[in-house]
Amino acid sequence: MSEVAIRPRLDRADAEALVRGALGADLAFTAHEEFKDGFFNAAHALDLADGRRLVVKVAPDKGLKLLRYEVDLMATEIECFERGLAAGAPMPRLWHADPDAGILVIDRLDGVPLYKVRGDIPTDRLLALRKEIGAQAARFASVTGEHFGYPRASGRTMSSTWSESFLAMVNDVLDDIEEQGTALPRPVAAIRAFLEGERGLLDEVTRPALVHFDLWDGNIFVRRGGDDWEFEAFIDGERAFYGDPVAELVSLQMVPEEEFPSAVEGFLGRPMTAGEERRLALYRTYIMLILVAECKVRGFDAEQEANQKKWATETLEKDFTAFGL
């Protein structure tokens, strides 16, 4: 991992101290595990003597250089947890949340990320799971925000229209990419001009719905139920914003092509309209731009950086060509 990695470095004693500070000074711990897959927050699992199995997440130091959208991400995740759970979205129990300190304590799930076991799940059962996952993800969309955009203290990207907020969100990540000097398949000015022309389509969205925006298979947990696999819960709401519910389908689309219609059926209960499909492509452009920008700040090894940048760039090229850009 390179020196630009921003994930906080904590040991077991640090993690235990944080949980004691949040839940009680007299707590005793029986086991510890650090999750090392992520590149942003630190995450440590702790088993307690009272039987609870918890995860403590810690945000990066506020003094580090972050992408523009990443500021206050822990506060964003906490809001996603609190409002998502209240709406019935399946997520781990929330034990403690301190957005100012950048600390979150939740239950540890029993299952495993879907990507680790999808090869063990029969096709018909996997399609049924995709439909259920789509339906459960729709619970986030039942939550309505006061404004469009990211729910951050500064109010940056918040507005009364979806076009204004979404364009501010995309322009932020384009600013990050320009500062990095990273090449894109089209000139940044051309991308900005194209998106400006989509304001009318974006403003067909009039209700700011909560969007998790990171429901790829690593954030979807499943568990064994006898001889079958069952959906358990979603994790990691740090990319959440208030906007078009259709944007939720971006990460749910990151599956083999034949599985995606089941997710759409569960989420919408019908096929997408032509307008929704075009908006989905706009949101896919946004997440791919984020993935390009991340490569310079996440501390990936050379192979992972190359693979992520290649995939994101190829997806952008395909969508830009379809847009006639």
The CATH superfamily title of the largest domain: Aminoglycoside phosphotransferase (APH), C-terminal lobe
Computed structural class: alpha+beta
Principal-axes geometry comes out as: globular
CATH architecture tag of the largest domain: Alpha-Beta Complex
Query: What Rg, in angstroms, do the CA atoms define?
Result: 20 Å
The major sheet is characterized as: 5 strands, antiparallel
Organism: Glycomyces artemisiae
InterPro entries: AGP_Transferase, Aminoglycoside_PTrfase, Kinase-like_dom_sf
Protein name: Fructosamine-3-kinase
Keywords: Kinase, Transferase
Task: Please describe what this structure looks like.
InterPro entries: AGP_Transferase (IPR051678), Aminoglycoside_PTrfase (IPR002575), Kinase-like_dom_sf (IPR011009). This protein is of the alpha+beta class and 325 residues long. It folds into 2 domains: 12-107, Phosphorylase Kinase, domain 1 (2-Layer Sandwich), CATH 3.30.200.20; 112-323, Aminoglycoside 3'-phosphotransferase, Chain: A, domain 2 (Alpha-Beta Complex), CATH 3.90.1200. Helix content is 42%, strand content 16%. The strands form 3 sheets. A 5-stranded antiparallel β-sheet has the order 1-2-3-5-4, sandwiched between helices. The protein has a 3-stranded antiparallel β-sheet with strand order 6-8-9. Helix 4 runs parallel beside helix 9, helix 5 packs antiparallel against helix 6 and helix 5 runs parallel beside helix 10. The mean pLDDT is 94.
